[in-house]
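Example record for the data management plan.
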Amino acid sequence: MRFPSGSSARVMGRALAACLALAVVTAAAAKAPGPPPVPAPDWPSGCEPDRMREDLAGADSADVSRACGNLRLPWAYRGPLGRGTALHFYGRREADPAWVARVASMLLDSAGVDTIYRAPGAEVSCEHTKPAPVYLVRFRHAGRTTNVLVRFDLGAALVFASNEPLGLLRLGARADSLWAMLAEPLFDDPQLRQPPPHATDSLFDRAHALGDTVIADVPPHQLARATHMPDYPEEAQRRGIEGTVFVLTRVGVDGAVHDAVVHAGPVLLQDVALETVWNMRFSPAKSHGTKVEVWTMVPVTYHAH
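Corresponding structural encoding:
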């Protein structure tokens, strides 16, 4: 079986016009025994140009920040136990409407939208003495927030809304202009007073937002029940909400959960599902007898009483 691993390398998936869709192998059910769980919903394409254009072109306000932390799947919520593996931003500044219109127009002036999964995952230090050329612009339109994670190291902008990936824009020659534009609201950022960094475009040739593709002949298996099972949310019980939350889970060579994000499932059950998965232990996946770190889909099912 092919699994996405936890480090960066080549893209996996299938072509969808100009976009790629991520294929993830589904693991055993989180709760057993019982009937087989329903299959996970299709993974989003990560390429939604119409939605992207609607949100950016109609934006009426925005703020700008430095960004750091986990740049893998930055649109995904990891729950309270996953704060250490989340995307962080700081030094936020509001932008004026004219700036918002200029930047949105420049971003949309692109030959095409690629799938967001083309971008390599990365960890960026949040130490202010070691800033990376990564910024977050949050556009607001019609009560929605559309995030643009600008990675000058890649020469690309990753666009996502909440848990929904919308696409990747190559900046090309526009990177210098965007660098200068960011310096307007972030006027006290010393890095933006320097020349923009040179983008390493070759990273796209071996990149995937989740990581390397590895061949695992032995998938990860849950060893036992989670060490902590949170209470069924009172509001979910009161409203009779039940179902399966699918959690994309990174299992390390030590069998511990190193990252967990919700793929799909009832909103009121997502926090408890994440808490459950973060407390799970697995036997690690193996490739030709060697333990490997992989991502796998873990379904957690809840029944209202």
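Summary line stored alongside the record: Helices lie at 49-57, 97-108, 174-182, 234-238, 267-278.
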